From TrEMBL:
Protein name: 1,3-beta-glucanosyltransferase
UniProt-annotated stretches for the region Disordered: 334-356, 374-425
Lineage, opening ranks: Eukaryota, Fungi, Dikarya, Ascomycota, Pezizomycotina
Coiled-coil spans in chain: none
Major localization listed first in the record, in broad terms: membrane
A single BP term in Gene Ontology: fungal-type cell wall organization
Biased segments, Low complexity type: 392-425
């Protein structure tokens, strides 16, 4: 279960049950009924002047077998928002959206319920392949990400973007890290060049202890333009009944104590034993809040791995026992008063050096691949219409980056990246949403896909 696959396999919904009183974001107030935008200060999130703790659930009904956009379906969204309100959550994480769909209604229902969106910008067909990161980092890929940013930057309740999800799931694919960081850099540059508000961009890491801290440091080293705005990781090590010391979370707090950007759990909720969600009291307790900014329970709608809080059958929704367990945990857990002991400033991390667990050879220290030259046009002109979920995919599209970025920018001064890729088609060429067995090869942004993969590998 330490491995990402196993964890994903177990993913079931967890609902975060913040009571409405815990949703302090709303009280900060803002114009026209919308929520205050969330910003990063030091190692914390703030909604207006109030510390913002993520109390959320992972929300991808249909899971791996049916990659549908949950926030483009107004009827289901309405049904689910009512449940979210019962739980008292303030955030949902969505793993896949269709960047050609309209999201106004659902985003507005979420906002009315005091709920923000944490969004993965990758889709199964538009994502970095962990076995061929260089080839899949290309203009066609970035165009899809940028189109997704265009679509969601207009909502005040867009909380943050995940630039990648579980791309690295073992020490031997840590060589994907420079690509993850380059994508994060490019997304930040795009937001900047389009004059959008500073929506935080960061990464969601698999539950892999061996390289957890090296990855966290790597994504937070170097100048601001290339650093993540936050770091999130999945953690299934708190299995009820547990404690800070039994789960080892006390050690993680210690090891991350100097981390200078917001940190939170992008998935948690071990289901080995009967779930009472004792982790909730810990996450929002005074031992963790100086270092952590909340978390997202895996997951809302039940799948084969039994992590769900509710089952959905057609339009019929049924709450499972875990739903009320989580609701109770949230109702019994207030946020700490004041600022929760956050650090308003800290030192950026030192880039890790090559090791047994950090096998990054091609790009050292702060070196990163240059943004593929074919993507420069989007910075100036905007991304245009995205490919949605039915596009032909980016992983074999060509035009990959072939150079190292010059310091101080994402660009290369002599980027000759207009060559089309000659990488072998092979397994990669047949990565489609329905073909989950290919997923181990994909640095995909979709947790639900890994769920299925996990099942396969197990
Ligand atoms: C990478 O490491 C994992 C275990 O950490 C192992 O299962 C896998 O076979 C390795 N892959 C390669 C290509 O060596
Ligand atoms: C955090 O920073 C302090 C002061 O620089 C240092 O003494 C301490 O060892 C650091 N802790 C960790 C876990 O790196
Ligand atoms: C690649 O770029 C070079 C230099 O800009 C140009 O001369 C060449 O025609 C381009 N090749 C392709 C296939 O676009």
């Amino acid at each position: 279960m330490k491995a990402a696959f196993a964890i994903a396999a177990a993913a079931a919904a967890t609902l975060v049950g913040a009571t409405p009183t815990n949703i302090q974001a709303r009280s900060s107030g803002t114009s026209s009924g919308s929520l205050p935008v969330v910003t990063v200060k030091g190692n914390a999130f703030f909604a207006g002047d109030e510390r913002f703790y993520i109390r959320g659930v992972d929300y991808q009904p249909g899971g791996s077998s049916d990659t549908a956009d949950p926030i483009a379906n107004v009827a289901n969204c309405k049904r689910d928002v009512a449940e979210f309100k019962k739980l008292g959550i303030n955030t949902v994480r969505v793993y896949t959206i269709d960047n050609t769909a309209n999201h106004d209604e659902c985003m507005s229902m979420l906002a009315d319920a005091g709920i923000y969106l944490a969004l993965d910008v990758n889709t199964p067909k538009y994502s970095i392949r962990r076995d061929q990161p260089a080839q899949s980092y290309n203009p066609t890929y970035l165009q899809s990400l940028f189109a997704t940013i265009d679509e969601f930057q207009k909502y005040d309740n867009t909380l943050l973007f995940f630039s990648g999800n579980e791309v690295i799931n073992a020490d031997n694919n840590t060589d994907c890290a420079p690509y993850i960081k380059a994508v994060t850099r490019d997304m930040k540059a795009y937001i900047n060049s389009r004059n959008y508000r500073k929506i935080p961009v960061g990464y969601s890491a698999a539950d892999v202890e061996s390289n957890r801290y090296e990855l966290a440091d790597y994504l937070n080293c170097g100048p601001d333009y290339m650093r993540s705005d936050f770091f999130a990781f999945n953690d299934y090590s708190w299995c009820d009944p547990s404690s800070m010391s039994i789960s080892g979370w006390d050690q993680k707090v210690q090891k991350f104590s100097n981390y200078s950007i917001p940190l939170f759990l992008s998935e948690y909720g071990c289901n080995t034993n009967k779930r009472t969600f004792g982790a909730v009291a810990a996450i929002y307790g005074s031992q963790m809040t100086p270092v952590y900014s909340g978390g997202l329970v895996y997951e809302y709608v039940n799948e084969a791995n039994n992590y769900g809080l509710v089952t959905v059958d057609g339009s019929q929704l049924t709450e499972l026992p875990d739903f009320s367990a989580l609701m109770k945990a949230y109702q019994g857990t207030q946020n700490p008063s004041g600022d929760g002991g956050y650090k308003s400033s800290g030192q950026v991390s030192t880039c890790p050096t090559e090791s047994e667990t950090w096998q990054v050879k091609d790009f050292t220290n702060m070196d990163l691949p240059a943004m593929p030259s074919g993507a420069q046009q989007y910075m100036k002109n905007g991304a245009g219409t995205g490919p949605g979920l039915t596009g032909s995919g980016s992983q074999e599209a060509g035009g990959q980056s072939t150079t190292t970025a010059t310091p101080g920018s994402g660009s290369s001064s002599s980027d000759s990246s207009n060559s089309s890729t000659s990488a072998s088609a092979g397994a990669a060429s047949s990565v489609h949403m329905g073909e989950m067995s290919m997923a181990p090869l994909v640095c995909a942004g979709i947790v639900t896909f890994f769920t299925l993969v996990g099942t396969t590998l197990l």
